[in-house]
Amino acid sequence: MELLEKLTVLSDAAKYDAACTSSGARRGKREGMIGCTSSSVAGCCHSFSADGRCISLLKVLMSNDCSYDCKYCVNRRSNDMPRVSFTPEELAELTIGFYRRNYIEGLFLSSAVLGSPDRTTELMIRALSLLRNEYRFNGYIHAKAIPGTSPELITQLGLLADRLSVNIELPSEASLKALAPNKTRSAILTPMRQISEQSAESKSELVKYRSAPRFAPAGQSTQLIVGASGESDRHILTLTQALYGRYRLRRVFYSAYVPVVENTLLPSVGTKPPLLREHRLYQADWLLRFYGFSADELLDDSQPDFDPRLDPKCCWALRHPEFFPVEVNHADYEALLRVPGIGVVSARRILVARRTGPLHIDDLRKLGVVMKRAQFFLTCSGSLATPLRLSQASVASNLMAIERASLPETEHEQLSLFDLTG
Amino acid sequence: MAWKEIIYQYDGSFEGLLCCIYESYTQKERPTTFLSDSDAEPCLYEIRMVPTVQEHTERIERSLIKLSPDVLPFLRRAFLTCLEDKELAIYNFIAKLYKEGSAYLTRLSDDDYQPLLRAVRHLTGEVEKLRGFLRFSEHGGMLSAEIEPENRVLPLLRSHFCERCHNECFFIYDRTHREALFYANGRSRIVPLDSFEPVPPNAEEEAYRKLWRRFYDTIAIRERENPRCCMSNLPKRYRGTMTEFQPENDAVQAFSAKDSPQQLIEAPP
Question: Which domain does A387 fall in, by range?
Answer without folding.
Answer: 312-421
